[in-house]
Amino acid sequence: MVQLYNLHPFGSQRVVPCKQEPAHFCCGQDVLFVASTAASCRVEVFTVREQGRCEALGSFATLGPVLRMAHSSAGDYLVTIEEKSKATFLRAYMNWRCMSAGSSRVCVRMVGHKMEESYSEALKEQMSVVEMPLSDPPLCISCCPVNGDLLVGCKNKLVVFRLKYCVINQNLTVLDFERSLILHIDNLIPAEVAFCARHIAITTELDVLILKLDLVQQSADRTEQCAHGVNAPEKAVDGGVKDENPSTHPLQLELDEFIICQKPVELLGEESKLCEIPVTLESTELPTEDTKHFQVQYLLFRRFAPDQSPFGFCEETKLHSVQLLPVYQTGIPATAYEETENKRKLLSLFCFFSLPHVGYLYSLGKLVELISTYQYSEKSEQAVLTPQFLHVITSQNLQCFTVRCSAAAARGEDPYIDTTVKACPPVTLDVCTLRMQLFIGPRAICHFKNHIILLTKADTEDITERRKPTRRMLSRKADSIKSRTNSESEPGWNLYIINTVSTIQLYREMVEYSRTYENVKTESCIHLLSEAHLLVRAAIMDPHVLESDEKEDLLRAFRESCAFLGDCYSKFDTKDYHLALPYYRMSGLSMAEVLKRIVSEGDEIQTYERGFIFYLTHSLNEDSNEELSKESGNKILQIFYLADPVQLPDILCSPSMRNICPLTAVKYLQKVEKIMPSVVLTLTKAFLALKMGDLAMYEHEMQSYKETTLACGFIGQPRLLQQRKGGSVTPTEFAVHLKEMQPGLLVAATVALHENSKIELEEADTFFKMLCNSSENTVPQLLVDFWEALLVVSSQEKILQELLLRVTSQYVWRILKKQLPETKPLKTTEDLINSCSHFGLIVPWVSSIMSVGCSSDKDYHEDISRLQSLLCSQSISIASALPVLEPLTEAGSVGLTVRVLCHTRLGQYEEAIDQLLRRCPDAAVFYAQHELKGDNQALWWNKLLPELCKRARLTGNDCPVLISSLKETLSVVAMELELRDFLSLLPEDGTAAFFLPHLLHCSQRKLLT
């Protein structure tokens, strides 16, 4: 469906003062080339100034009548196909600008001809004509706008000429060509070709083929493949007709009496290989280290059928106007054109081609897809595509259509453009006709910058009709038409330069026009504003248009168009209401500014659409630094109370709503509570009561639910406790109050937030440190309480190990520094052992060691017992904790228990026994009784007994503890070993009387068994 609007994209028009009737014309960077009809064999050159003013720059002769011509911006050369004596020639005109300086010297040479030093200096002041011989007559040509390479279409082949820059000397560089590649294409006669960034588009009368030359890595085993390319498979597609020998066909017919038409077919991407058009590559340039090797990639094949009518087939159904349009990444434009050329980077590529009544625009990106179809009101003659518009000429009209290239390119540049942060009108947006401008006999059209060049040729009856008074559609520069006389000798042709209006001017007109649909057709209003937005977006992406003085105007218009679209999606009830958010964000408007645009002054009964509510909800739920005024905040409260009262607690906790009247907010919440009570709403009322200083109301609200319910209520609204500002978490007044009055609730609520992914572990650390006014390196007790509480409920192994290391480190630090916690811990060691599996029961031998330790350790009993309890459990990774525990291992009895516990957890029982015998022999037997069991029981007689005997012998009777421990050990050993094994363990120099009771006990046990 094509939308039709009566806008004015065409401004002034001026007549090009051609001396002869134009046959062909094309545009350069700032000039217009006009080739006259067969009689004169000349090309006139005109420079185009502002507002389309045209001045003759010079002219030069051609070999014969020009059949085709094209200009390359890269290299600034003109290439022509000329005819002489029924033969066609391909010629390139270099350095043609010297003709305007009055020089008439011309150098004609063959392509690749070596420039001699003898006349190199003269090349500066003479035009150079390069003739490029071909084995087959050239049919069509195209210049690559990116690098200036030339593509020539011949029967069954395409020839690529690479543009070369030959350095003659320090002051002179001459352009030349090198025939680099031939594409052999069987059974194909190209009518038109287009060439851009190694992409090739070919059309015949009814077929379109788009190829890409991919660079390949050259290696010895694939040289042959790269040189000859890739042939298409021989598989036939639906509707394809393979060449067959007529004599072998079973149903031979008189083919002259029939018209054979193949079915229409469209093959995209990989499927286009099935088009039965084999392409073979032949490299023709001399191989060097820098030689590039290519292979063919098929992108698109489309075959059309002739239009059918009740009177038979229409012979005029032919494709025309194939073009490849590059779109470049948005960059900083340079002041000089050449600098811009070097800096810009290709972003997207589009291909356009047309039938007489319909045009097709394809995007050639990672996916090849049809993005727009253009239906013409009458038969088209020619079309030209620009980044902003499609201009089409028919038998009596110049039509201007919008295009979707900027929308597709924007998504190519940023695949995530359609989010809550940014948006762009869809590629599938209906195309529209901005203008249908009447002209008499349009025949040809081309475009460059903001100018359209139009050739008209009127029949005799058209000239007579034109002399009659008519209403002029172009009135902005009416004087430009008055130059045409009504004399009898007036020719029937004109070459016009039509100046298109500036992007900003047309944008303003589209915005103004959209207001006529504001209250009638909302979709049309959005459509027009989307067109205006894409118009500006396309201008911003065009490196030729975006100049320094125009840049700010375009960016300002871009932001303004985003604001207008945001207004539409906010005010209108549309299915895409969510787009209000990204468009307002791209506009740069603050919430206060948006409120002024949407909310009517003094209108208490105004209704608000989903888009506006969606925008406000997301904006207020973000951590914005914008603070709304008291009036704006109260207005937002009223809006949500009427539109979505459930969200009021969320809205009230927004950092942007700091300045609201708490009394007004409480009144709204009380009304909502009667209908939809909730714990979050109650907590919000308590929060507001604190802001008002009403402690009675605060106590009443906080006593409405149990503490566990209140802790879970904070999950629904974390911003009651902590708000984000500048990327960091800061505590609220509510959190400060809970810290003083209900620290347990605060810790429980923070644990609930962490377990529900509302706050990260590092954020919680910052939160508690800020809350307790602690320095960066100081850990407040409330944070330790949080870690301990989190150990009780957390089930993530990675989090658990991190927490265990943190609490261990804090216990060690306090014991070493003899630092008591600044506040009383919320749980005792017994509480933790009973509620958390990560805190184990303290084993008896640890208590035995501590009983003979230093009395000063008793002041830090809680931290010591928590640390020992952690090490007695199986949760903490001892290997990871060793660096943290190392400073404590020499600290008296506590250090001994820590060291022995670590040895035991690591399975190093012998080292643990050595430590105990050396530093606390009283606990050695207690340790053995508790730890030396099962597979470790042999250590009783293999390690403990020999060590005790050895140490008792050295100390004698001076250490009764060793003697007592030895007796206990002998009792255990005598119970476990056979008599013979027990005897073998006794020392030879021992006193028999000492061991006799144990020997007797061992022998009696043997007799009993």
Give a verbal description of the structure.
With 1009 residues, this protein is an alpha+beta fold. Among the domains are: 3-233 and 259-467 and 490-501, YVTN repeat-like/Quinoprotein amine dehydrogenase (Methylamine Dehydrogenase, Chain H, 7 Propeller), CATH 2.130.10; 935-1009, no CATH class. The protein is built from 32 helices and 36 strands. It has a five-stranded mixed beta sheet with strand order 1-31-30-29-28, with no helix packed on it. It has a five-stranded mixed beta sheet with strand order 7-8-9-11-10, with no helix packed on it. β26 (358-364) and β27 (368-375) form a beta hairpin. It is elongated, with a radius of gyration of 45 Å. It starts with a strand and ends with a helix.
Short description:
The chain is of the alpha+beta class and 1009 residues long.
Percent range for helical residues?
Answer: 25-40%
How are the strands of the largest sheet arranged? 1-31-30-29-28
**Gross CATH architecture of one domain:** 7 Propeller
Q: Separation of termini? A: 105 Å
Approximate shape: elongated
CATH level-3 fold name of one domain: Methylamine Dehydrogenase, Chain H
- Low-pLDDT runs of 5+ residues are 220-256, 309-313, 331-342, 466-489
The CATH superfamily title of one domain: YVTN repeat-like/Quinoprotein amine dehydrogenase
> Helical element count?
32
How is the main sheet built? 5 strands, mixed
Mean pLDDT: 82
Name the quaternary structure. Answer: single chain
GO biological process, one term: pigmentation
Protein name: HPS3 biosis of lysosomal organelles complex 2 subunit 1
GO cellular component, one term: BLOC-2 complex
InterPro entries: HPS3, HPS3_C, HPS3_N
